[in-house]
Amino acid sequence: MRLKDQLAFVRQNVKKNKVRTFMTILATAMGCTFLIVLASVGFGLQETVVEDTLEQQIVTKIDIHGYEKDDEGFRALTMDDIDYLESIDGVKAVTRRNHLQQITTYSIGDYMEETDTVAAHFPSEVKSGLELQEGRLPKENNEIVVGYHFPKYLHPASVKEEDLYSEDGQLKDDYQYKDELLGKSIDMTVNKMDDGKEVTRTIPLKVVGILEKPSREWMQERKVYISQDVLNEIAVFTGTPNGNPVQEDEVAGQGEDADTFDEVNVYATNLEAVKAISDQLDEANYATYSVVKEMEQINMLFTVAKAGLLLIGTIAILIASIGIYNTMTMAVTERAPDIGIMKAIGANPKTIKRIFLLESSCIGVIGAVIGVVVAYAISFLVNFGLPIIIEAAFGEQLPDNLKFSAIPGILIVISVGICLAVTILSGMRPAKRATQIDVLKAMRREV
């Protein structure tokens, strides 16, 4: 019996029992839809979390927190460590910074601003991707680079803080510094405690560059980047490492001799090199962090969650399989005479079994196709409508990139595969029963 004839036999039976077949297909489609939509929640939230994490961090950046000595805890990194890090294959740049251990006041004319100060190694910063909005990099010790938002927060020193800012936390236009900052001299004021009294010192600096605007609107870059020589000068003044104003122990000049760094970051040439570099540093006892490690943990968590959702969704298809089993069992009973005739004229039992498996497979395929289409429609409606409902009901502003549901191709393949497997298995028993029907009883309709 040719495949074409077998398919014609299947179509004939479907036409005879349209309502029953339709209800079975509907149940299968509902099960497949439920499976896809349920699992799509895990895929959607994973996509949102991963995108948000990647947006907030540089994916090729590896933070080095220190070196772990045997039974001695962690130590700060030195130039020897920098040389080793730069020698690793796949490393593009190794930046190192030291942070001034006090909030510094900067003033120009009647305007001032308090912000963080960093001593940076500019050649390595440029290699890592540092770019300027305008100006140039420092060439002299007294030259500095400021963050993109630094000029936007310079404000009159005589105005009270509560009057400076609008409700959204931005400096009011009336109080903003309107002149060109680039090329101007600005005073840096640092302090120390001497016998319980505060002593201040002013260091004149020149602004030669302004950093490029951060890639994200919510990011604020207000730091001031000075040379290591200026930081050493402050350390000598305070008598403490990195200019801490409150330490009592006098270690004058330690800042000049210090060969350690507060912040060291490794930048890989590409994303593929990050994991290999991280693994090598871990083996060398360096304490590291990279977004790749975070992604591995996040993806593992969501993989478990998606597997659980797929398992729950599969239950819906298993429930639908009861209907398929019932439909196929009734089909075998109703077509007993036809089966008897086929066996009487010499039909192979495998052919009879294949006919009924084809029928259950067709139900699964049609149900899966309908389920996929409906799942995509529901996913679209959920992503479009649910944020509106939540914001209206609870007054919460949701992130713009939040996805409640996402349906990747792999989810369709898995869901359709599960659907077809369940429907075929549901038809196995009735198909086997069809091959065991006695010819004489079938002809007398005694089955």
UniProtKB/TrEMBL annotation:
Q: Which UniProt keywords apply?
A: Cell membrane, Membrane, Transmembrane, Transmembrane helix
Q: Where in the cell is it found?
A: Cell membrane
Domain (MacB-like periplasmic core): give its ranges. 21-282
Which GO molecular function annotation, any one, does this entry have?
transmembrane transporter activity
> Main site of residence?
membrane
The membrane topology noted for this protein in its Swiss-Prot or TrEMBL record is: Multi-pass membrane protein
- The portions of this protein that span the membrane are 21-45, 300-325, 362-386, 406-425
Superkingdom assignment: Bacteria
The ABC3 transporter permease C-terminal domain covers 311-437
> What's a GO cellular component annotated to this UniProt protein?
plasma membrane
Q: What is this protein called?
A: ABC transporter permease YtrF
Instruction: Say which species the protein is native to.
Output: Virgibacillus oceani
